[in-house]
Design goal:
With 235 residues, the protein is mainly α. Helices cover 77% and strands 0% of the residues.
């Protein structure tokens, strides 16, 4: 019960934070960081700027995503989940922490730079600078397979209405991830081929990231609720 309330509160905070971050980006897009004369302040509050206070807030949101996955592992005391599914949720908890660090430190960009320098992958094409996909791509694909397995393993214990709700959330997350990938490729093409940047595309991409973060947290929270109900604990 206490964990459920905590997750509910965190989800509300993530939603409010996401709305505020998007509004800040929209404000900066229209005022060009000069609203009320506080130029430096608005730069810090823009999610599109690496290392800003806004990106730190998003990083903290990602970090909090470890909690519902960890809670699912802890609530499965009667071992309804398979060992592989439980391992997947444990990995998800760790992945949330890593992605939070990656958001602030730009780990994947650094990896991409090292691989690109060593292999010349993508040099001269619009994919230049995306060499990190060589490492992240296979990991993401393997994670997707495990996700489908763990989702099916978990959903089989839920009532149809709860399963339908979870699948709607999964669809929202999938659309968000697809949007991010398309916009990332579009931004790469604009920058590497046309030598221009689109702040509007970046704003939509960052907004999609927030949708994925909130959607993921909501999905894990809903799955935790289902596991809690199966364990006979009032949800």
């Amino acid at each position: 019960m206490k964990m459920n309330r905590l997750l509910q509160d965190i989800y509300r905070i993530l939603l409010i934070l996401s709305v505020v971050l998007v509004l800040w980006m929209i404000l900066n897009e229209f005022t060009q960081y000069d609203a009320i004369g506080f130029t430096g302040l608005w730069y810090e509050l823009d999610l599109r700027i690496e290392g800003s206070f806004a990106s730190w807030l998003e990083s903290m949101g990602m970090f909090l995503c470890f909690l519902p996955a960890y809670a699912i592992v802890r609530i499965d005391t009667d071992k309804r989940l398979s060992r592989l599914s439980k391992l997947f949720f444990q990995v998800l908890a760790g992945a949330a922490v890593f992605l939070a660090a990656d958001e602030m430190l730009g780990i994947h960009e650094r990896i991409g730079e090292k691989i690109g320098n060593a292999t010349n992958l993508g040099t001269g094409t619009f994919l230049e600078g995306f060499a990190w996909v060589l490492i992240y791509g296979p990991i993401a694909l393997f994670g997707l397979v495990l996700f489908v397995y763990a989702l099916r393993d978990t959903l089989q214990h839920f009532i149809p209405s709860r399963r339908a709700k979870l699948m709607h959330i999964v669809l929202i997350i999938a659309v968000g991830i697809g949007t991010i990938l398309v916009l990332e490729m579009g931004e790469a093409y604009l920058y590497n081929i046309l030598r221009i940047r689109s702040s509007l595309m970046t704003m939509v991409e960052e907004s999609a990231e927030l949708v994925v973060i909130c959607g993921y947290f909501k999905l894990m929270h809903a799955m935790y609720n289902g596991m809690e109900a199966m364990a006979g604990v009032p949800a």
